[in-house]
Design a protein that fits this description.
The complex is a heterodimer of chains A (about 400) and B (about 500).
Chain A lengths: L9 E7 L10 H16 L8 E5 L12 H6 L6 E5 L5 H14 L6 E7 L27 H16 L3 H19 L13 H6 L2 E3 L2 E2 L9 E8 L1 H6 L6 E10 L3 H4 L9 H14 L4 H4 L2 E3 L5 H10 L8 H6 L16 H4 L4 H16 L13 E10 L2 E11 L3
Parallel strand pairs in A: 2-3, 2-4, 9-10
Antiparallel strand pairs in A: 1-7, 4-7, 5-6, 8-11, 10-11
Helix pairs in contact in A: 3-14, 5-11
Chain B lengths: L2 E8 L3 E4 H8 L13 E4 L6 H13 L8 E7 L10 H8 L7 E5 L5 H14 L4 E8 L8 H5 L3 E8 L5 E10 L5 E2 L8 E2 L2 H23 L7 E5 L7 H9 L21 H12 L5 E7 L2 E9 L11 H7 L2 E3 L2 H7 L19 H6 L1 H6 L1 E5 L5 E2 L17 E5 L5 E9 L9 E8 L4 E5 L13 E12 L4 E10 L6 H5 L1
Parallel strand pairs in B: 2-14, 4-5, 4-6, 11-12
Antiparallel strand pairs in B: 1-7, 1-8, 2-3, 6-7, 8-13, 9-10, 12-13, 15-16, 15-17, 18-19, 18-21, 19-20, 21-22
Chain lengths: ~400, ~500
């Protein structure tokens, strides 16, 4: 019987580059920025790293394939660098690799680093991805906003939500994230916005407007992990440990059978059930102090509140509008600005979410600091609602 | 008895206003004021002669999955998309016809579909089984030309056989003469015409009466017996003048649909035949003639069986489904004559892996899914392992055709981000009656036409165009069921 990851691995140090349209920075520069901060925070030198996991999604922009881009950019001392690609969950997947390596005893210290350089395409929005030779012959030339917009269509129909009310709740999600991002010096988008601005923005994919979509950003983030004992031996206190690391991948049931109703993300529910069990969480709405979820689109965040069993089925619209997830609400969500405003360099996003949880749990979040958080949950969703990779990670104070 | 055992047609939904075309070009081509009336059928950006032909064939063959009765297929067109790759082969895959059929493309002259009918009838007589003749045209024209106003896009289908004959073949006559009223060298896109008066006086008026006389003699009929005289063409009153010259009653001349459709080229003879068969009475005689490098004339007599067959939509149904288009630049863009700015998202490579296409041709071209023989669950694309949670059965799926099944929209969106020939790009998840789900593009839709729960049917269309290498990728798309305008409703 597996005992899970709870409290077996601690964070030794973390770093995160400033996210945004980093015209002046190469992906290598971004990696160095995140790496330097993480190494300084951990207080170690390169020779102490046993292995590396490297997350980057895009092949034809950014750094290309393989582990070499990280090994070379950081001049790592010929340690193993494993490149990880799992859509938008790649960063969380890299963390899982490094954490499992330490938990297994194969490594004392491991690093996970994610980077994405999205702004070398010449156009706005996510770069166009290649999907093999079969899918393009039958599958629509679909883009992310329209894939996720379909959640809104199905959710609205299932719960009989007035379209105007849903649009307002979605707007609230974005207004809240902009307010949070404005306080984050590393965030891509730092301007507060109003509900009216959101509602009047041009449509990207019905019913999603411009402000319902997250930023497309350059950035990198890194985490260095070790065992709690080693961390303590190095003089670290107030350890942040991993409580759960779960990934769930679609089997095609949602996309191909007629059973899934399109209004929620099946894998998120699978992953989070396992994560709560692994972390020993019995009442998430009471126990989880804060959330960093995959708010690629406002509707995704709204639906995710139900998928994580924080809101009741059909109850997310009310919770969102009641301010439950605002910075001063019961369960602050996207306190760092989220994908929406911190930005979304795909391969780095999972690690960026962890970075905020780490800062908050260590009381180092500055203006954004929440009072006494115990458990933080991060959630990544890569792909689209009907077919995806979903990760749920829970971290918290050691022993909590 | 041999003859026509089924028929069908297809007209694209869009009908371009000739007034709109004339007004857009009036500064340059004021001479076309007289043509600025009515509409011409206009293919959507994702339609070509292959997709038009598939639609007409489906109108003719009906929704039955079993199409084994068809033993031969001819596709006649002057605008075949592929110069090399059997266009009829694409149609055969889309219709999921038996691989053992004979299939051919015929082209080169406006009358070639009638020549194909003659050959198909000979094959039927020779015992080869039922033969499907499809004719389609989707022609390029120059902007501000007469052809742009005269032509229309469309297709028709005729199934020839021995059982359940709706119109018995009585006789025919043929002429092959190198009378060059028009030509187009291989590789050129737009045809070149000689003077109308010469074509009328020296060509049609001299050649066709002799030919029609021979066909009537072959059928052992007098010209006065003809109830429906079909002679397509763009020259005003040419059909009536020819009828008079041949001794055919003026009342027998069939309206050439110029005001609603335009001239559909190679397809037009069969399109008018399909329109006549919808209303013809048992015992009536149809004379179908078409001019082109000589000509063809065919004579049929309608049988009692005519009332036992209806095409799925029929010419009258397609006419009623028309949607007026007044945006001339949209027409030019769809026809490839106006290259609109695409942005960088329009630069995506559309190279098609032919190995992959061949492996999956039944799924891609035929929309054939896999249905588990144990659970009944439908999988698209078909796969070795079933999706059923907790029950991953292997190798239990059997072919299951989806193209003739309707579906309902589960979720959808309309987006303005990606480059699309006709934005917004609309797609969504469709659940099929009888099982199966596919994320599909919607076509023939304007903004607001798609909603959750709306009923859709499938149409075979161009999915992507690889301009770099010159290749059309075909697949199926969903379009809202437009029940209110179907043939059945029009009949009353």
């Amino acid at each position: 019987m597996a005992t899970g990851i709870r409290d077996k691995v601690a964070i030794l140090g973390m770093g995160c580059s400033r996210f945004g349209e980093r015209w002046e920075a190469s992906p290598e520069d971004l990696m160095v920025e995140a790496y330097n901060e993480a190494m300084a925070d951990a207080g170690i030198g390169p020779e102490q790293l046993d292995a590396a996991w490297f997350s980057t999604h895009m092949d034809d922009v950014g750094v290309g394939r393989g582990g070499t881009p990280m090994g070379i950019a950081l001049r790592l001392p010929n340690i193993g660098v494993t490149r990880v690609e799992n859509f938008c969950a790649g960063g969380s997947e890299a963390i899982r690799g490094a954490v499992y390596a330490v938990a297994s005893g194969a490594c004392d210290i491991a690093i996970a680093l994610g980077v994405e350089k999205l702004k070398d395409t010449g156009y706005g929005g996510l770069p166009m991805a290649t999907v093999g030779t079969y899918i393009p012959q039958w599958y629509p030339n679909a883009v992310a906003p329209a894939n996720f917009a379909q959640l809104a269509a199905a959710y609205q129909r299932k719960h009989g939500v007035d379209p105007g009310l849903l649009k307002r709740a979605m707007a609230h999600v974005s207004v809240k994230s902009h307010a949070n991002g404005a306080l984050n010096p590393k965030a891509h988008l730092r301007k507060p916005i109003t509900e009216e601005q959101v509602l009047r923005a041009p449509v990207i994919a019905e019913p999603l407007g411009l402000f319902d979509c997250c930023g497309v950003s350059d950035g990198a983030a890194a985490v260095i992990v070790t065992t709690p004992d080693i961390a303590r031996g190095m003089g670290k206190r107030d350890l942040v440990t991993f409580k759960a690391l779960q990934v769930s991948v679609s089997s095609g049931w949602e996309m191909h059978s007629n059973e899934w109703d399109g209004s929620y993300v099946h894998t998120a529910r699978v992953a989070v059930r396992k994560a709560y069990q692994e972390a020993g969480i019995r009442d998430p709405r009471k126990q989880i102090s804060m959330l960093e979820v995959h708010d690629c689109f406002s509707i995704t965040e709204l639906v995710t509140m139900e998928d994580l069993f924080i809101s009741e089925e059909g109850g997310a619209v009310r919770d969102v509008l009641d301010g439950v997830f605002d910075a001063d609400g019961a369960i602050p969500c996207q306190i760092d600005g989220g994908l929406k405003c911190f930005g979304h360099p795909i391969g780095a996003s999972g690690i960026r979410m962890l970075y905020e949880m780490y800062l908050q749990l260590q009381g180092r979040a500055g203006e954004r600091q929440l009072p006494g958080p115990v458990f933080g949950l991060t959630h990544n969703l890569g792909g689209q609602p009907s077919q995806n990779v979903c990760s749920v990670s829970i971290v918290g104070r050691e022993g909590a | 008895m041999i003859g026509i055992v089924a028929y069908g047609a297809y007209l694209p939904r869009l009908r371009l206003s000739r007034q709109a075309v004339f007004e857009a070009n009036a500064w340059y081509a004021p001479q076309f004021a007289g043509k600025a009336r009515g509409h011409r059928a206009m293919a959507n950006w994702d339609e070509d002669s292959v997709t038009l032909a598939v639609a007409a064939a489906r109108d003719c063959l009906g929704p039955d999955d079993d199409r084994s009765r068809v033993r031969a297929l001819t596709l006649a067109s002057s605008s075949l998309p592929f110069a090399e790759r059997l266009n009829a082969g694409i149609v055969a895959e889309a219709l999921t016809l038996d691989e053992r059929i004979q299939a051919q493309d015929v082209t080169g002259s406006q009358r070639i579909a009638l020549s194909a009918i003659g050959q198909a009838l000979a094959a039927v007589r020779g015992g080869q089984g039922e033969s499907l003749v499809l004719a389609a045209d989707c022609r390029d024209t120059s902007a501000a030309s007469g052809s742009e106003l005269d032509y229309g896009d469309g297709a028709a289908a005729v199934l020839l056989g021995e059982t359940g004959v709706l119109a018995e073949f009585l006789g025919a006559a043929h002429r092959t003469v190198d009378f060059v009223d028009r030509f187009r060298l291989a590789g050129e896109t737009v045809d070149y015409h000689w003077e109308e008066r010469w074509i009328r006086d020296e060509g049609i008026s001299k050649l066709m009466p002799v030919l029609i006389g021979e066909a009537l003699a072959d059928a052992d009929l007098d010209a006065s017996a003809v109830n429906h005289f079909i002679f397509p063409g763009i020259f005003p009153k040419m059909d009536a003048q020819l009828a008079a010259r041949c001794g055919i009653a003026a009342g027998a001349v069939v309206d050439n649909l110029n005001s609603q459709v335009g001239d559909t080229g190679v397809a037009h003879g069969l399109l008018l035949l399909a329109s006549v068969l919808e209303r013809a009475q048992p015992g009536q005689v149809i004379l179908l003639a078409q001019f082109g490098n000589g000509g063809e004339a065919l004579v049929f007599r309608v049988t009692e069986a005519i009332n036992r067959f209806r095409p799925r939509v029929g010419v009258s149904g397609w006419l009623a489904r028309g949607q007026e288009e007044t945006r001339y630049t949209r027409f030019l863009s769809f026809k490839g004559q106006l290259r609109l700015e695409r942005g960088m998202r329009g630069e995506q490579d559309k190279k098609t892996a032919l190995t992959t296409l061949y492996r999956h041709r039944r799924a891609i071209l035929g929309l054939v899914a896999g249905r588990c023989r144990e659970t009944g669950q439908v999988h698209f694309p078909p796969s070795r392992v079933n999706y059923t949670p907790g029950q991953p059965l292997q190798d239990t799926q059997q072919p299951w055709k989806l193209a003739e099944r309707q579906g309902r929209v589960l979720s959808w969106s309309a987006e303005y981000l990606s480059w699309h020939m006709s934005p917004p790009n609309q797609y969504g998840q469709v659940d099929f009656d009888g099982g199966g789900r596919i994320l599909l593009e919607f076509t023939d839709v304007e903004r607001g036409d798609v909603s959750t729960g709306c009923e859709v049917e499938m149409v075979f269309r161009i999915k992507d165009v690889d301009e770099k290498r010159g290749f059309n990728r075909y697949f199926w798309k969903a379009t809202p069921v437009r029940r209110g305008n179907t043939h059945a409703d029009q009949a009353e």
